[in-house]
Structures are given as structure tokens and as C-alpha cells.
Amino acid sequence: MASSRRALALLALPLLAASPAQQTPAPSPTPYEAVDPFIGTGGEGHTFPGAVAPFGMVQLSPDTDAECQIRECYAHAAGYRYDDPTIAGFSHTHFSGAGHSDLGDFLVMPVSGEAVPLEPGDARVPGSGYRSRFSHDGEVARPGYYAVTLRDAGVRAEMTAGTRVGVHRYTFARGKAAHLVLDLRRSLYNYPGKTLWSSLRLRPDGTVTGSRRTRGWAPDRQLFFAMRFSAPLKDHAFVSTEKDVAYKGFQGPGRGSDAVAERQGRALVGRFDFGRLEGPLEVRVAISSVDEAGAMTNLDAEPGGFDAVAARTRVAWEQALGRLDVAAPAPMRRTVYTALYHSLLAPSVAGDADGRFRGPDNAVHRAAGFTFRSTFSLWDTFRAEHPLLTLVQPAATTSDIVRSLLASRRASPDGILPVWQFQGRETWTMIGYHAVPVIADAYLKGIGGFDADEALAAMVASATYAPYGGLGDYMKRGYVPIDREPEAASKTVEYAYDDWMIARMAEKLGRRDVAATFDKRAAYWRNSFDPKTGFVRARKSDGAFRTPFDPTAINYGSDYTEGNAWQYSWFVPQDQAALFRAMGGDGKAIAKLDAMFDYDNSQLDYSHAEDIAGLIGQYIHGNEPSHHVAYLYNHAGAPWRTQARLKQIVDTQYKPAPDGLSGNDDLGQMSAWLVFTALGFYPVTPGSLEYVIGRPFVERATLALPGGKRFTVVADGLSDANPYVGRVTLNGEPLARSYLRHDEITAGGELRFTMRSRPNRAWGKAAAARPYSISRR
């Protein structure tokens, strides 16, 4: 797919004749060239193909549906969907792989000719508005760059982005008048009344600034922009399409003293006219959650036109992707590098170049000595995304993330850490206090730059905030009662894991009193485990398990969070050995794992549950509660079963195509799972400082580490005919255990697998060879 786009692009270049004798095999694409941003833009991946820098504040990408309503937005959560036939415009903010829609701020669309429509029109009626048909044949996407030909507008559109700046380049047909439409009304999750207020302002130097204040997934979110053009304006218009002029709700700020023209309202659209241009029109746009001055500061902080910004961002991506050197067949290599790319999009920068940021209290703060980041999809990303960043990014990245979490807690009206936050604003989506494992895992790995005592206090505050998610009952009863709080079974086991993480950090800091309290709470998962059925279940206030009980039932707001008993009964990452004993021993745990993967779903209908995708029996790879499950055979002494299941998952849930992700990428979690799994190990229990060994899916991979160190994974004999691990060595010495320690990776060295056709049932079987569990240490 991507190679065909590249071939079409080459048709525009002069061809050099070469005889067969002169031709040499083409070198493998560099990591940068191997990335295909179209992976995940179809199906349920919810990724976007547009331009973004590593962790960039700006995600400049096409939106293919500008009329998205509440439920309909699920399919268009990233703004773009590969099978849509039209583009409505290019907006500056997007989530990568989220299960919920929002953003899509400041939609820009080029229009050519005399008439300038101010409505997007109907996708089924060409010419009915400013939207345009397009073809994938003329579409190009690579890290930090996107291009497409807008057929109806007759415009070649190109996008690039720096950290806080997006740059458009539009090449209009010669002789056609050039216009831009800037639509402040349209965004993702665009239900009636979302836009509380907006403004447009033309300044004397030709800079256009403005703002939007919205009520969407995050309440009362403010965003500002500054825009400059490479050609002078010939004319402009700021139009309000608001019909309810008697609206008495929120009003915006007063008129700016330096404005040539200004308009405010709830439904604004701007038109900018440039006449007939001799060359491409470049449009530089910066955003800020603070104010228009912040957007202008951000615009000035990244100077240069399209080519300069694109070049800097390409260098940044080459450096970021180059930390992993992968040798594998082309489809797997493309899939792995694209997964790494998707893992490096969030948490995104959310603070201005001068350090200011907007916090969860909706006030402006200043970051001292770090870059404020947001877009924390923590229920998803604590599992593998954040552990991956500790290996493939400089320690400063994770340090900034932790400092941002702590800064948000200081500005939180509730005094707790973020749950699901973007642009500094809390959404209260999902469950748990999963900033805790992100912070503790970083600290235990030696990543500093933050106040560890403050971090522990923040973690304890989040874990003892009684109004949140049934925590009052959890602390009193040892479980969350379902008749007082929804999703109680899931909350009980997830809280228990987070509590274990608090205990580990407290122990490291010498706070034995805190450690003892939270070690006790880490065992509360037992209070929701039903030995009669072998499942984690929801209990009522009177202590009885809720009935009737169906382990396959999935309903939102019921006993479980985006899952059922089959997935959640395995979530005891801190003590899988104790869970297996409660299930009746290793043999019964293995049989139950097999039953989960082999379950016949033919009589079940999960069409009502949007996030349930990528089913293999009752294993649901498209959603996060299942992500560690295939590795649990190791905890029962049967790593060969993990190896078989991993091949089953990778073969069916990933491919280098638009529908190549079986479920939402969830800000990099689905992708981080694949990066780890391709290397041959996975962080089943962040905070244990261990990785469970699976099996590699690449022939060779090298991680570049600080101090010039290298950690290399080699898979001898890797092929479809050899799916099992026969032998493992670490730095030339046999490795009998089925886990790897974090310090063994960061020290540098070589992990070598010898693959074979039949399983090695003896390797990793001994109790001492198994991964971390509280009761085994």
C-alpha cells in the first residue's frame, strides 16, 4: 500500500536508465521510511495519518467527517477514516487511537474560484460545500508530513508540524483565485451547544488570532491560535452563523484594542482571500491553551517556513525511531516501526514555549524546568506504553511526564492525580488511579528529576480520596460494593494493583508504615475472587456476590469495565501465583487460560459494546484488560503455551494495512504491546522491574541505550515453521528463567533465542524460573 503511493510520487521525477547489470538491490527502508501512518486509520484503530512531531502539541491532520454527532463520532474519533470519500478540512488537534472523540480544533480548508462556501456540505453531493473528494492514490503520509490532492478544490494540500506549530502548504491551480475557510464551529464530538464561545481577530501585521471555548468530553476547555500567511490578504470576512442571537449564556472577553477586525460568538467562520497566486500559499499556525499571546509566542519559537519545519521534524523523528534498529521481513518491520511511531505521539506537549500551561483548575500555571505534558490515557497506557518510553526515550521524557502529573495534582481542585486528562483538563474517564504505577515504575527504575516524597504523598492522596470511584467503601470493606458503585469488580482488582505500587515506592523511600498499609490493601483482590466459580465477581454491601452471574456478559456500567469476568479474573499482576493457587493450581489455571482463548462465541452478540474488538475466544486483544493474559502461562510454568498464543495474537490482530489494528490504539498502548512482544518480552507487572519472556517476532533488534550501550535481541532460526523457543541465552550464558530484569537490559548485552518447531516444555517450568509474584518472593 505505502510502496504504491511512493511509486506514484516517483512518476513526477526524471527517470534514469539503468541496465540490469547496473541495478543493485534496494536497501531496506530506514526506520523513518518504514513507518506507515495509515496503519490503524481504518477498522477500529482510530489513528490519524496527519503531521505531528514526537509528542507534539499540534496534530495537523485531515478530518473526513465534520458533521460528527455524539454516538457517530466513535468511528471518527481521530477525525479521519480511511474508507471515507471526502475531506472536510485540516484541523490542528487529534487523539491517536482514543476510544472517545473530541478535539478537531480550528478547521482550515482551501477553496479555489470565485464562490466561497462557508458550510462543509453533504459528502454525497459534490460541490455542495467546501469539503472535497480525494483519492488515496495521491495521498502521502510519513512521520511529520502529509499530502493529498483535493479534487474538487483543485488544490495540492501538504501538512507538516513542529512541536507547537503546524504548517500548511497549498498549491492552487494557476489562474484560480485562492481562499481559505477557517471554521471555528466544527469539531469532533460536535453535539449542539458544544461551542460556548469563540473569537476571531485580525491584527495590524496580518496575523490572525482567535479562540474556542468548548463543552465536550472535557468540560469548559479553552484553546487559542495564532495564524500567519506567506501571502498578503486581499480581503477577508468574519461571519457568525449563530441563529439564537438572544443567547444569555457565557460571553467572551471584550474587543481587543489592537484588532483591525474582530468578531465573537458561538458559531464563527472566517474567510480569507488571496487572489491569484504565483506560488504555493503557506499558513503557519500555533496553538496554546493559555491565551492568544501564548499562541504567538509559540509561533515565534519555531521559525521558518514549510521546508524548514519539515526538516527539523524529520530529524526529530529519525532520532526517536532510530533508538530501535530492527531486522525483519518487510511487513513485520513496517508494522513494528509504525507501532513505535504511534507509541511516541502521547503524552503530548501541552505547555507553551514560555512554560505556561492551563491546569485542571482552569487556571494558568508555569512549569519550572520541565515541559508540561498532557493527554494521559492512563487506564490504557500504564500497562506497556509508559514502560516502553522508559526504554526507548531519554529519561528526561518520563521525568517530564511525572513532573506533569504532579503539577496537575497540585492544581487539582480535588487534590488527586490525573485520571484521563488532555490539554490539562480532567475528563474522569475510566477507573483506577493509574498515574500511580507510571510514577512508581519510573522511580523504581532510577528515573529522577522530581520530588519523590511529594510523589508518594500524591499517590497516597489519590488512593485515599473517598469520593472517587467507591474508594470510601473500598477502604472500609476491602472491596467496592456493586450496589453502591458501578464496575465494582474491576475497580476492586485495579485499586489493589495500584496499592501494591504505592507500597513498593514507600518501601524504597523507607516509609514502612505506608508500605504496610498498602501491602495489606494489595491483597484486597481476594475479596472479589469467588472460589466456587473461579472468577473475579462483584459483591454487594452485605458481602454476597451479585446474582445472576454470567461470566460472558458485557454491559457498560455493570460489574466490569469494558469487559467481563473472563478478562478481569486474570488481573492480579502483583500476585499471579496466589491467584493460580486460588484457582486450584497451575494445571487448572492453564486449563482456564486455554478455555478463555478457545471459547466458542458463536452464540454471543457484543455489537452493543464499542470497545470489544479483536476477539480470540473470550480473549479481547482490542481492549486493554486482556493485554497481559497471554503471558500468564509463564507464571504457571508453561512458557511454551505463551509462545503459541502470542503467535496466534500477532498473526490475527496486526498487519501493515489501514485496518491493521484490531482495536483502538489508545494513545499507543496497542502499539507498545506489539513493540515489546516483537522484541520477545513484556512488562506484565510494571513496578516489578521484570519483563516476562515470550518469543521474538523479529530476526534481530537493537535498543540504543544511554552511555552508548546497546541491548540486542537475536532470534536464530526464526520462521513460521519454528514458532517455539528452544533455548535462551543472556550474554552467552544459558538463561533458565522465563523473565528478564530491567537492569539486565539497561546494562547492555545480548538476549539470544534459538527457535525450533516443537515446544521446549522443560524451559521455565521450575518455580524459581517463573516471573514475579508477591507470594513467590
From TrEMBL:
Ribonucleoprotein recorded as keyword: no
Assigned keywords, A-Z: Signal
Domain Glycosyl hydrolase family: 295-756
Span of domain Glycosyl hydrolase family 92 N-terminal: 35-288
Residues spanning the signal sequence: 1-23
Gene Ontology biological process terms, A to Z: carbohydrate metabolic process; glycoprotein catabolic process
A GO CC term assigned to this protein in UniProt: cytosol
Any one Gene Ontology molecular-function term assigned to this protein's record: carbohydrate binding
Classification via Pfam families: Glyco_hydro_92, Glyco_hydro_92N
Protein name: Alpha-1,2-mannosidase, putative
Native source species: Sphingomonas rubra
